[in-house]
Amino acid sequence: MLFRAQLRPGDRPVEFFHMATVRVLLFASYAEALGTSSLEIEVGAEPRVRDVLASVRARAGATQLPPSPLVAINERYARLDDPVGERDEVAIIPPVAGG
Amino acid sequence: MLFRAQLRPGDRPVEFFHMATVRVLLFASYAEALGTSSLEIEVGAEPRVRDVLASVRARAGATQLPPSPLVAINERYARLDDPVGERDEVAIIPPVAGG
Amino acid sequence: MRVALVQAPIDVSAMLAEVSTASSGATTLFLGTVRDVNDARAVDGIEYSAYEAMARRELETIAREAEAQFGTPHIVVEHRIGFLALTDISIAIAVSHARRSPAMDAARYVIEEVKKRVPIWKREHYADGAREWVDPTRGHAEVRR
Amino acid sequence: MRVALVQAPIDVSAMLAEVSTASSGATTLFLGTVRDVNDARAVDGIEYSAYEAMARRELETIAREAEAQFGTPHIVVEHRIGFLALTDISIAIAVSHARRSPAMDAARYVIEEVKKRVPIWKREHYADGAREWVDPTRGHAEVRR
User: Fold this and answer.
1) What is the pLDDT of residues A23-78, one digit of tens each?
2) Are A98 and D137 a contacting pair at CB < 8 A?
3) Residue A51 exposed, middle or buried by CB count within 10 Å (0-12, 13-18, 19+)
4) What is the span of the domain harbouring residue C76?
5) Which of C20, C43, C63, D45 lies deepest, with the highest CB count within 10 Å?
6) Is there a contact between B51 and B58 (Cβ–Cβ < 8 Å)?
7) Which of the other chains make 3 or more beta carbon contacts under 8 angstroms with chain D?
8) Which residues of C touch B75 (CB under 8 A)?
9) How far does D124 lie from chain C, in Å, by closest CA?
10) Is residue D144 part of a domain?
11) Does residue C68 sit within a domain?
């Protein structure tokens, strides 16, 4: 999230970033690999799916994640450059095997 | 069926034909049209399916039969020029509508 | 593989149990049922009749063809004859296989062939009291399911 | 149209009754079942798990797509999760329609899409005691039904 301070004319804009906290869900083999079924991830401002994934990759066990896993935001499939909001639920989806 | 008399040399062969009796089954709309579900049909020697059909066509109500109805001999679909034996069961099959 | 003409209501659960095997990953069931409208006429029942011996023989031939073509020995087909009311099941085809495509393809093959070849006829009873033999060759597209 | 994730055994008869209507001439039921061999390994059960909220949502999306594409509002889909033994039903898809082709096509569409999109996973339990998550993307053709 991005905040702008009140500016006087002639001032350069000053931006105050804060770290966004995103909830990440893990399932099946991915939950097993990372030893948990959910994570709270700190990411920079205006995060995208790829940023969330990069942060998850820093965790122990994350080497088992493929280069581009399926990801959902709020129960819908998303793309790597889709933006992630602070209240969004990001799910990393192992290869599905239903039916 | 064809019988040959004992011939002396020089005689012309003399052939005795007898009429073959064939059992014909009728179903559904055809049985209704002809008012019966089975017929005994007299046909000439070495009859074929077309001969049996021609004989059936002489019956009352047979005008409702199409020009080339489906026919089965002994529970198997047959062609118009297939031979019919005296003990064969010939069925005239209305358009099927199972399922 | 088993085929039958039956008079009593078809027991679908029994048919599913009959094709179930530990090596089946997929089971397909197709049901034909009596519906309330045909060719824009209100129907309240259908009388099914058959050339029974030949119908059984053709059903068996069709099931064997499906088995050979799709590798599906676990096929059961029952066709009911007699008077059927609305929603009654006229035909049930159950097929199981390790994988789904053969199970689905075999069931479809069987119903398509049944409609072409098995000597079974139906006389529809209409709400207005009329009764008519159904003739799918007369271009009544709606007769086909 | 109704979709559900269930823990208890799937009641196939209830599903068939649910899609039955007086204007249905054809009903298709597809069942996925747990089978005893996968990838040449002896299986004695499968644990199904799901991202439940999303799985329900995807199932519903798929059923609505089928309804739009094939004109089949009478669709019920149930997927079971939890531990399933051999021959247990993991998924059941019931579709009815006036005619047979839409009923068959819709059921096939639903199972194909479920396999691609619905976030459900299975961990196979093998007779040798091993357990493995099934990954259909790894080129294990046999995983597909």
Assistant:
1) 999 999 999 999 999 999 988 889 999 999 999 999 999 998 999 999 999 999 99
2) no
3) buried
4) 2-130
5) C63
6) no
7) A, C
8) 51, 53-54, 57
9) 13
10) no
11) yes
Compute CA distances B83 → B80, B87, C83, whole Å: 9, 12, 37
Q: With bands split at pLDDT 50, 70 and 90, how would you rate the model's confidence at D55?
A: very high
- The pLDDT of residue C145 is above 50: no
Q: Residues B77, C51, C119, CA angle at the centre, nearest 5°?
A: 55
Q: What is the mean pLDDT of residues D29-55?
A: 96
Domain CATH number, residue D48: 3.90.1170.40
Asked if the structure places residue C141 within a domain, the reply is no
Residue in this structure with the two tokens 């098995």, named with its chain if needed: C118
Cβ distance A72 to D120 less than 8 Å, yes or no, reads: no
Residue D141: Cβ within 10 Å count: 8
Can you give the pLDDT at residue A2?
A: 44
- Asked if residue C54 has pLDDT above 60, the reply is yes
Contact D28, D16 (CB under 8 A): no
Residue B19 banded pLDDT, cuts 50, 70, 90: confident
Residue of A nearest to D117 (CA): A96
Q: Calculate ∠ Cα C119-D107-D20, nearest 5°.
A: 70
Q: Do C33 and D25 touch (CB under 8 A)?
A: yes
The domains of chain B, with CATH numbers, are 18-93 (3.10.20.30)
Task: Provide the domain count of chain C.
Answer: 1
Q: Exposure string (b/e) for A15-41, b if CB count within 10 Å is 16 or more?
A: eeeeebebebbbbbbbbbbbeeeebeb
**B43: buried, middle or exposed (CB in 10 Å: 19+, 13-18, 0-12)?**
buried
Residue C139 lies in a domain: no
Residue found under tokens 């509508």: B97
pLDDT tens sequence across D128-137: 999 999 999 8
- The token pair at C49 is 């009749």
Bridge partners for D46 per DSSP: D84, D124
What residue type is assigned to position C62 of the chain?
I
Instruction: Give the chains touching B; criterion: ≥3 Cβ pairs < 8 Å.
Output: C
The 3-class SS string of C3-59 reads EEEECCCCCHHHHHHHHCCCCCCEEEEEEEECCCEECCEEEEEEEEEECHHHHHHHH
This prediction has a pTM of: 0.90
Token pair for residue A61?
């066990």
Q: Calculate mean pLDDT across residues C27-46.
A: 96
Retrieve residue D108's tokens. 């096939």
Q: CA distances (Å), D4 to each of D44, D58, D59, D135, in order?
A: 25, 11, 8, 23
CA of A1, closest CA in chain D: separation in Å?
A: 26
At residue B11 the predicted structure's pLDDT band, cuts being 50, 70 and 90, is: low
Q: How many residue contacts between A and D have a Cβ separation below 8 Å?
A: 76
Please state the separation of Cα C85 from the chain's center in Å. 16
